From TrEMBL:
It comes from Pelobates cultripes. This is L1 transposable element RRM domain-containing protein. It comes from the Eukaryota. Coiled coil: none annotated. Residues 197-206 have a biased composition (Polar residues). Residues 56-78, 189-222 are annotated as: Disordered.
Length: 222
C-alpha cells in the first residue's frame, strides 16, 4: 500500500519541485528587470537634466550671439507700409538698462509718431514671457513689482523675501505663495507667430529695438 502511494506521489513531488524552480527563476528575472528599470529611470532623469542645462546654455548663447553686429541697423520687413524695427546695439549694458527705464516713463515722439522700445531677446525667451503673461498682468494689477532675470526667471520681492519662478510648471506654486488667484497658463508649442512665420526678433541682451516712426504699434509688456 505504501509503495503504491509512493509511486503516485513521486511524479507530483517532482512536478512541484520543477514548478518551484521555474517560479524562482521568474522571481530572479523580475528582480533583475526591476533593477534595470530603476537604473534606466536614473539615467533618463540625468539625461533630462543635461538637456535642460543644454537648453539654458543654448538660450544664453542665443541671447549673446549678436554682439558683433553693427551698432544700429534697420531690420528688413516684407511690407513697406508697416513700421520698421531699428536694432541698436548698446556698447554698455547699464546704458541700455537706463534707456529702457526712461522709455517706460517717457513718451518719445518723432514727427508726431510715437517710438516704442523693446528688449531684443531670443524667441525662446519671448515665448516664455508670453506664457507667463496672465501671471504678470495679475502682478501689475495688484501693483506687485517684478523683474525678469537671466537665465530665464521671474522674480518678485515681497515682505523682505525674493520669490523666483523659472518656468511655467512652477506658476501654480508661485501664485499660491503670493496669494494670487488660480489661473490657466498655456505652454506654446514653438516660437512661431500666429501667421506661421518664425519670429524675427534678435538675440542680444545688450541690444534694444526702437520702432521706426512711420506708423503706430502697441507697446510691449515690460
Amino acid at each position: 500500500m505504501t509503495a503504491k502511494f509512493t509511486r503516485h506521489l513521486t511524479p507530483i513531488t517532482e512536478g512541484l519541485s520543477d514548478l518551484t524552480r521555474r517560479i524562482t527563476a521568474i522571481e530572479e528575472h523580475l528582480d533583475q528587470t526591476s533593477m534595470r528599470s530603476r537604473e534606466n529611470e536614473t539615467a533618463i532623469a540625468a539625461l533630462q537634466e543635461q538637456v535642460r542645462q543644454l537648453e539654458e546654455a543654448q538660450e544664453d548663447l542665443n541671447n549673446r550671439s549678436r554682439r558683433s553686429r553693427d551698432r544700429a541697423l534697420r531690420a528688413p520687413t516684407p511690407n513697406a507700409a508697416q513700421p520698421r524695427d531699428i536694432i541698436i546695439r548698446m556698447h554698455y549694458f547699464h546704458i541700455k538698462e537706463a534707456l529702457m527705464r526712461a522709455a517706460r516713463d517717457t513718451l518719445l515722439q518723432i514727427e508726431g509718431h510715437q517710438v516704442f522700445f523693446y528688449q531684443d531677446l531670443a524667441p525662446s525667451t519671448l515665448r516664455k514671457r508670453r506664457e507667463l503673461r496672465p501671471l504678470t498682468q495679475e502682478l501689475t494689477r495688484r501693483h506687485i513689482r517684478y523683474t525678469w532675470g537671466h537665465p530665464f526667471k521671474l522674480q518678485v520681492r515681497q515682505n523682505n523675501r525674493i520669490l523666483t519662478l523659472h518656468n511655467i510648471t512652477e506658476a501654480a506654486d508661485f501664485a499660491e505663495r503670493l496669494d494670487l488667484p488660480t489661473m490657466v497658463l498655456t505652454a506654446e508649442l514653438n516660437d512661431r507667430r500666429p501667421n506661421g512665420r518664425p519670429s524675427t526678433r534678435g538675440t542680444s541682451p545688450h541690444a534694444t529695438r526702437a520702432l521706426d516712426p512711420s506708423g503706430p504699434r502697441p507697446p510691449a509688456e515690460h
